[in-house]
Specification:
The complex is a heterodimer.
Chain A (H helix, E strand, L loop, with lengths): L5 H34 L2 H22 L5 H23 L2 H11 L15 H9 L6 H12 L4 H8 L3 H17 L12 H21 L7 H19 L4 H14 L25 H21 L5 H14 L8 H14 L3 H15 L1 H11 L2 H4 L3 H13 L3 H14 L3 H16 L1
Helix pairs in contact in A: 1-2, 1-3, 1-5, 2-3, 3-4, 5-6, 6-8, 6-9, 7-8, 9-10, 9-11, 10-11, 11-12, 11-13, 12-13, 13-14, 14-15, 15-16, 16-18, 18-19, 19-20
Chain B lengths: L1 E8 L13 H10 L3 E6 L7 E6 L2 E6 L8 E9 L3 H10 L1 H5 E7 L5
Antiparallel strand pairs in B: 1-5, 1-6, 2-5, 3-4
The chains are: A mainly alpha, B alpha+beta.
Amino acid sequence: MPSPGPEQVTSATTEASQALAEVVASERLRIVATLIRLTQDWDLAEDSFHDAVTRALTTWPERGIPDNPGAWLTTVAKNKAIDAIRKASTERKATERHAHELTDTPEEETTMPDDTIDDDRLRLIFTCCHPALALENRVALTLRTVLGLSVAETAHVFLVSEQTMQKRLVRTRAKIRSANIPYRVPPPHLLPERTAGVLAVLYLLFSEGYSSGSGSDLIRPALADEAIRLTRLVAQLMPQQPEVLALLALELFQHSRAASRLDAAGDLVLLEDQDRTRWNADAIAEGSRMLAAAEHTLQHLGTPPGPYLLQAQIAAEHATSPTAAATNFARIATLYAHLSQVTPSPIVDLNRAIAVAFSEGPDAGLALLDTLHLDASLGDYHLLHATRADLLRRSGRPTDALSHYRRALELAPSDPERRFLQHRLDVTVSS
Amino acid sequence: MEYLLLIISDPAAPTYIPEEDNIEEWSADIERRGIARTGNRLRPPSDATTVTVREGKTILTDGPFTESKEWIAGFDLIDVDNLDEVLEIAAAHPMARFGRVEVRPVWPFE
């Protein structure tokens, strides 16, 4: 048989690396999560997976893509881990037993207590988001281990050096090991609280990506998509948790506007001025389905709505309204009032006042702002002053609005926001 | 796995309410579950003596090694499977409410 020509080799390599990229994207989390459970060694799990991928790069183009690429990677990575443990055990006899256990324990045999979800990916996510770890360490570890970002990419998200991030990750994994944080989905009595902790990390990842806009930065914007993918996975694995479904809906509604929230010049476009035809209809439809499922589950459980459900309901009102003018601001104001009881926050109060202003008029919004006494907590927050200025302007008191626009301008953190406020200020001065 | 609970007094914590002190119930619970290794109260820092040996000379200092408004008022050595279990036990201790409880994993010599 003639040996394959250079063109055939190239096409086999391309095909193999495409197949590999796909299986890494879909299977990496599951394989690494299982290796961590089996080896109880986070670094070894990552390294073994990396070795298996490297081996696939050379083997697959020659021998063809295996029928089940995910299973192939799992087996190779597992064998790499066993080899590494065996090698170490020649230096330390004690671990030999461990390598033996690893080979003799098929995954199916691990016994789980009733009511907990048997999925290594969830075990990994819950462990990364354990409340005994500092929030920033939870986020860093989730980026690195769950999403598979490199140390350099993770460092970039936190705007720290690679060395600093490496140290932080090492310390975090050391605490998991030394303090014996269990690698598991928490038992039912801890599950609601711990799930809230996981959702907080997911939403933080999403917001980090979403708020970063569409600049030259390639890592942060991709985080929004990654966070949605991960939330979708958690929602599939925990469909009985209304807050998980609600968070997915919330992220989808917000993300549906990603293309229209900045104009060509990179300036902010207010919700009311956005071109609604550019909103992602598929994302809105999926968000609506998820929200309906969350509401249905909640009704079934008979528990009060949580913070993500209320926020998703608010986002749904905006996302599904045909025009800005048709938005049901009365319902939004009611939902914000409810949200403020569930999770009291001055920002929620401010949003409630804005919704009241849109449904009952600017004077009603201003009156509510005064009764909420937000200056103590939000005195340095530009949007409090911008809101007051805007409501005064709408109420026909442009002169009163000026000083508030100026204060907002002083406090605004970003260029697009400063440009927006300056424009409003100029318009108000000239009127 | 063993964890040491350091029971810490905190002057900024809510006022101690004797009726809400469930220490006997707490101790009975860990005894009953067979996870209590040892534990006790400690005399205040004013009764402490700090020992330092430098260049062969023993130096004794009257008082704790650091002056602090927060001090260790007691300790418990607990033997459970994992951090989650000991955190629940720590949270049930009355001094988690009237002070704070620091949980430290024991690091055995191999």
